[in-house]
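Lab meeting, item 3. Inverse folding demo.
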């Protein structure tokens, strides 16, 4: 099988588990040199060792908190020091807080989530862009389907994800003169540690997971690997796409959201 991202240098935020892990893995399998970050140490280091053993690409784990501007700056500079350039930035690290109504949500909670989910994407893009412009590279922002269709008791999260889609389009406009493409991916439900954690906060985790599966027309959740392949498509193959929002939703938004009662 030919390698679709051979020797390309990619930065992935939040790559130690979940969707980010899927992206790091698919990129390494396709020959890329990936630098990925997460806040903790152990999971990132274990993944780094596993993927470097498997190859054919390689990866480097950097411990970094993307809610901190200096950490983001360091992630980009470490990548350039190590590999000399950057072809692709994947902004993925983010968090979905437990569901709660607007009445119970403080301004501080909203501001903190904006900083973590949105400002971090802006800053990583800002620091990576001088390098991406030299390589006619690309940015991939992981948003969410709920940024377009909404979600109950999650106004701050939905706001951050909608803003990511808008920011993607704005940056695609600005960067087109440098031939830098900026796109986003909007997953529906994907089984990850974050999803498991949210299900665990409900009275019946198994029922929550079942409902999460049934939210897709395809009757299942997406996988980390499918997210990795979607990101690889945008990075390696989608050379005429910029400013797009690639829905990775198993058809969750179709038929006005009704998943059954389709007359045959
Ligand atoms: N899982 C889903 O169903 C789903 C659906 C739509 C969108 N998303 C989005 O996909 C992205 C990844 O979600 P996931 O489900 O894989 O989450 P996850 O919690 O399973 O993994 C998140 C990753 O980000 C890292 N991370 C979290 N906070 C960080 C910080 N401050 N600094 C550095 N790294 C940090 C974690 O260490 C981990 O590697 C998020 O932006 C999320 O909003 C997820």
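The presenter then showed the designed sequence:
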């Amino acid at each position: 099988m030919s390698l679709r991202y051979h020797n390309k240098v990619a930065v992935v935020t939040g790559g130690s588990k979940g969707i980010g892990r899927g992206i790091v893995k698919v990129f390494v399998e396709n020959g890329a040199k990936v630098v990925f970050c997460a806040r903790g140490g152990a999971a990132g280091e274990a993944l780094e060792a596993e993927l470097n053993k498997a190859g054919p690409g390689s990866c480097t784990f950097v411990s970094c908190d993307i809610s901190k501007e200096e950490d983001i700056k360091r992630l980009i500079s470490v990548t350039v020091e190590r590999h000399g350039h950057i072809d692709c930035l994947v902004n993925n690290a983010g968090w979905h807080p437990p569901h709660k109504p607007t009445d119970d949500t403080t301004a501080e909670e909203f501001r903190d989530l904006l900083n973590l989910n949105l400002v971090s994407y802006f800053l990583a893009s800002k620091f990576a862009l001088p390098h991406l412009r030299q390589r006619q590279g690309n940015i991939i922002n992981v948003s969410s389907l709920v940024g377009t269709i909404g979600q109950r008791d999650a106004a701050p999260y939905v706001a951050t994800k909608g803003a990511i889609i808008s920011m993607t389009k704005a940056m695609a406009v600005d960067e087109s003169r440098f031939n830098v493409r900026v796109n986003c991916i909007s997953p529906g439900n994907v089984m990850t540690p974050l999803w498991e954690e949210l299900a665990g906060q409900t009275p019946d985790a198994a029922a929550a997971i079942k409902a999460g599966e049934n939210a897709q027309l395809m009757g299942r959740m997406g996988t980390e690997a499918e997210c990795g392949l979607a990101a690889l498509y945008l990075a390696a193959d989608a050379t005429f796409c910029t400013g797009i929002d690639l829905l990775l939703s198993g058809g969750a938004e179709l038929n006005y959201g009704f998943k059954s009662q389709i007359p045959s």
